[in-house]
Structure prediction request, 180 residues.
Amino acid sequence: MASTSVPRWPHRTLADVEFDAHATRHLIFAAGPDAMTHIMARTSVLPEVATVVEVPESSNVQDVVAGALAGATVGPRFVVVGTGASVMRIRALIIEAGAIDAEVTVVHLGSEDGFAAMERDVFCSHCHTVTPATSRIDEMVVCAGCDIELVVYHHFSRRHAAYLGYRPDSEELTERERIE
Ligand SMILES: [Zn+2]
Prediction:
């Protein structure tokens, strides 16, 4: 279980997504206004039964996603479009609600890969506070909870929808298995 689970970004644009022809319905989540613009410019590639759900940056992401999922019946597929930490937050909420990895596609409109500088949530393995940061992997961020400097580790916790941060002088990542 120690394997790295950094999410990959196989899709750079909605036009690259292979929609499942057998799915009864697609739910497309737009994280932020840029994502909405991106989708609206490409509605011709969307499958027949698709619902676009905008998740405004100021909104309670959990409520918006839960509301959209409540209306989703049998066999929906999910596409999350956007940049930064909110994409992974939305993806984590969908998985938490019972979807499997294969049913959720991420279209990442930001930098080239998950390792570049972008907004990401960092989970403190010491006090369990989540701190939003723009640090790159292996860079430092000061934990908002315990105020210590954390190294942003390349491990992504799906449960917390955040990257793992640990004190550089920690002898072992004892929390690592626990937050898988
Ligand atoms: Zn902390």
